[in-house]
């Protein structure tokens, strides 16, 4: 008869978590690097007590907001290339569903994240409890059902023994290269405190090694045939290249076969900026060098990318009617998009086997040489946008240039939504894998500061720079206090363009009147708010300064490197200036009927661009 150990369900959960291991750089380490927690009546007695006893094995970190602490966990897992991860626990009600947005980020970005929101009483004796939202027609519903559409696996723990299958299923999802994403275990608060005789075998140490799926021989043969016939092939590197740790393999593959490489937002830093075949960003926020080649490409080898609309220019980028897409991806859903030839495999193994079967084949030398010449031309243009300036309000691009000059390429960059991702994708010069971290799958404003903490926890020896706009800062800045409290030092560059500058530009481009985006266009007040971001950051314990010029920004960045804690550097920027070179059309629907001639003109341009979409090819 198997031995058992009597534990509460919460104690069993954390004991199980501490027994799960991963392999990072050949060393076995705990797969869960910590638990983010904000306690309330739905988890403080059960989970709180359990976590206190394992705090030496599973550190508990306290966030200021449930959404942002989950963002930190996501950023950590992404920077660790999904080899390690974090979990988050909350009370019931608003604390729980504050994490729904973060769950969607992890779901879209294919990031492992274990969410453990408290839930109402399984016994239902005290119903309705504080923060319970009752469904008049379904007694089984709680607000945690909101997690179902944005979880790869969802379970509700209503009995302590249900943890045994639930946690085993959760680990399979969290570590599977194709199914990876958020797992939600909705944990009834009375069950957390209920005891059960768990089998000791449930807590046995287990190592979760990376699964490297090898390609099907028929799919491999079809991909090889397509590439051998190619005259103008390109490679699009997505986040799967980084998750697979395939950067060196990709560089060798591209060099051997003479194929230029373009990077998505998730895949940027797959190759160093200096790699001779790295054409930089692709798509709506892409370089002219990369997009010119994609327009002509007859074979597109899409490696580890879900081919979202910013990558494909809303499926208007690839103009060659004879093109073939090869989808090298662990997930068949992504590998077969837009009638692609699927090559369902791990990125590293897939590239290795492709290369072996291609033998000495290489793209025409003229194609490779033309690609490299085009990138040199692009860099001359890009450098002009990032060059120093004495402008009273510099552009985002000029700020990017200043940050890069002051800190070099050996830093890790964090960013998210707004106008900066487009500029950074085109202009930032990444030097090592996973040094560029833009949350642009779900494009979630407010991700940046919390994400910077997660990135720093994953890369403690790296200088982590967070770049964000004032709009995103206003949405979620409270984790500045967390970074100070934890001693996790980051450098925050805050670009103040007085509102939502990116959407203001998009609004104008669609022919609409500018309103409701910038403070200066506020239609309700005569005076716009004067926000002192420096004083605000200082109030949370950060070192903060205002840079009145690019030169002052560079000097402040150098000082921040040796600062003892998190620094925030604020600089005013121009909301209208943007890098108009490069890029590609992006489909944003313009009203079909309007009394404004500007909107009607924008609609005509929109309809003309729609004709270039090749969705059915």
UniProtKB/TrEMBL annotation:
Residues spanning the signal sequence: none
Keywords of this entry: Hydrolase, Thiamine pyrophosphate
Domain of life: Bacteria
GO molecular function: acetolactate synthase activity; flavin adenine dinucleotide binding; hydrolase activity, acting on acid carbon-carbon bonds, in ketonic substances; magnesium ion binding; thiamine pyrophosphate binding
Domain Thiamine pyrophosphate enzyme central: 220-354
Record's GO cellular component terms: acetolactate synthase complex
Domain Thiamine pyrophosphate enzyme TPP-binding as annotated: residue spans: 423-571
Entries under Pfam families matching the protein: TPP_enzyme_C, TPP_enzyme_M, TPP_enzyme_N
Domain Thiamine pyrophosphate enzyme N-terminal TPP-binding intervals: 57-131
GO terms classed as biological process: inositol catabolic process; isoleucine biosynthetic process; L-valine biosynthetic process
PANTHER family linked to this entry: 3D-(3,5_4)-TRIHYDROXYCYCLOHEXANE-1,2-DIONE HYDROLASE, THIAMINE PYROPHOSPHATE ENZYMES
Record family assignment: Belongs to the TPP enzyme family.
Name of this protein: 3D-(3,5/4)-trihydroxycyclohexane-1,2-dione acylhydrolase (Decyclizing)
